[in-house]
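Journal club prep — side note

Before the paper discussion, L.F. wants everyone to see what a predicted structure for a comparable chain looks like in token form. Sequence:
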Amino acid sequence: MKTILGKISRDLIGNIVIIHFYEPLSLIEKKRFARDFLKQKENYQIKTVLEKVGKIKGRLRKAELRFLNGERNFIAEYKENGCIFKFDLREAYFSPRLSWNRQKIAEDVAKKVNEKKSKILVMFSGISPYPIILARYLKSQKKKAFIVSSEINQKACKIGEENVRLNKLQDYISVLQGDSKKIGLKLKAKKLPLQFDFILMPRPNLRETFLSSALKLGKKGTKYYYHGFGEKGKVLNEIQKDAKNKIKILSISQAGDIGPRLNRWLVVFEKV
């Protein structure tokens, strides 16, 4: 088991661990590893071992997972930053590695929220971890906000709505299903705000920046929290190109990685 440990990555999501094997092993070897993993005392809270097969792909960002050992279950029960999440890992993308990033953004937004009820849009929200973490933090600070949680994956939206109720944050969050490229039309049809004070863009690693859509929903002074991928210079160039000098960069910092030598960056900028 020690020799294999250096050749895997793992994501602990509550009662489930997802293993990614970097070197070819037989299914029997993988199942044996999973069995031994569950026997370790420090892994007592883990009931199920799954294998990540291939990359996250498709517009809906679904993972291909294989059951290896333990309870045959794909429903994760996960706690983060005081919030509870329950969801089917096969239906929507979720990364526990972004926990600190979600908290960092929540704290930063809360500092900038004024006395008025701020309007906040979260694009690519998946099962709504960013909106929920943010709403809980704002509520603990006794600050008012209305958050729209936007996601194209219909099943992820339903899970997001359930998690909003689970955390008793219905007064803060409204879940909106739809394509980020057409988000303005969707907001108008649902009679939701068309301009926001803060726009969070924890976007996947796609060629499209979606900035043309996002910038239409901001106003002078709107703060954006944007995820870009690759080299720092490349990320800044793609933002400036699509924003057409309508923004001012406030900060850029690493927000982890999504693979070997492929960084994720958090860029905070303001519409001018």
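L.F.'s comment for the group: The chain has two domains: 2-73, 97-271. Keep this in mind when we get to the figures.
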